Amino acid sequence: MRTVKEISKLTGISVRTLHYYDEIGLLKPTDKSEAGYRLYDDKALEALQQILFFREFDISLKEIKTVMDNPNLDKNQILQMQKKMLVAKKERMERLIASIDDILKGENQMDFEVFSKTEIEDTYRSMVSNMSDEQRAIFIEHYGSMEGFEKHFMESASSEGAQKNFQKVVEWYGSKESALEASKNPSNSEILPAYQRRIEAVMKKLAEKKGCDVHSFEVKELVGEYDFVSKQLYQMDDVSKMLLEVAELYQTNQEIQKVQDSIYGEGATEFFGKAIEVFYQHDPFSNK
Questions:
Q1: How far is CA 148 from CA 119, 151, 155, in A?
Q2: Which of 43, 44, 50 is CA-nearest to residue 78?
Q3: 195 shares a domain with 278
Q4: pLDDT of 53-76, one tens digit each?
Q5: Residue 236 belongs to a domain
Q6: Closest by CA position to 211, among listed 283, 277, 270, 253
Q7: 232 lies in which domain range?
Q8: What is the spatial distance between Cα 146 and Cα 136, in angstroms, rounded to a whole number?
Q9: Most confident of the following: 21-35, 73-87, 97-111
Q10: Looking at 124, 155, 184, which one is the last position of a domain?
Q11: Domain boundary pick from 147, 169, 184
């Protein structure tokens, strides 16, 4: 058995941190001496090592405790999970080192990959598992087989352009983890079209207000509904960043204007953009 001071010296973790882990139930001492000092056995030391592995990836103590307390996870499963995380980090470090080598050689090509190959593969598997038979049939018809679609998806998602788009998505969701979670847990296949229909209905109502003051309550009320439905559709707490980028495109991209104006009427797309922009810049309830 080791004392808390010995564990601290062995691992580099402060005594205060070990006390805190005890207080929150993350790492309880194995026993206490007659004088009341915390004592730890080898099993507790192994648990601390697992905690430190997770902390290496900035995982919160609350999340670590949830994993460690899960009765369905044994030691090997936790180690496999940590190994996967370490391999992903190792791959990222190797890419960064290779990029620095290129810069030192005069080939200025930094690697800004947002999602690794492993993460893209996980996203693909989650997406396919949530597909309906009708959706699968469409992809099979277009790509010849699901294997053909997988190849296309992996190549497209790994491209430089896609990675730049992923960076925007991460910014919109607030973190890489939130973006991945949303991609792995899409809205129910029956709910998704309903949300899309609601957005189309809002845009039609907005088009009817074209020519009205974008600062007016009636226009802001419709954009507020657009904001609400978008949050449900994209599973985001705050859609302001994303919709402000959309608003900019609505006002500057002639291709988008041409397509949307053919549906909602000439000048409608630019009006949408101005209305969205004003809503987030001046609306007192905006999360921005």
A1: 19, 5, 11
A2: 50
A3: yes
A4: 777 766 778 878 887 887 776 767
A5: yes
A6: 270
A7: 191-282
A8: 7
A9: 21-35
A10: 184
A11: 184
Asked if 212 and 218 touch (Cβ cutoff 8 Å), the reply is yes
Tell me how many domains the chain contains: 3
Which pLDDT belongs to residue 94? 75
Is 40 within 8 Å of 4 (Cβ atoms)?
Answer: yes
Residue 133 lies in a domain: yes
Provide the pLDDT for residue 275: 93
Are residues 135 and 172 located together in one domain of the fold?
Answer: yes
Instruction: Give the strands of the sheet with 31-32, arranged side by side.
Output: 2-3, 38-40, 31-32
Higher pLDDT, 265 or 65: 265
Q: Which residue has the higher pLDDT, 17 or 59?
A: 17
Q: Are residues 253 and 274 in the same domain?
A: yes
Pair (179, 195) in one structural domain: no
Greater model confidence, 96 or 264: 264
Q: Which of 29, 76, 79 is nearest to 51 (CA)?
A: 79
Per-residue pLDDT of 31-43, as tens digits, reads 999 888 999 999 8
Mean pLDDT, the chain, rounded, equals 77
In angstroms, the first-to-last Cα distance of the chain is: 53
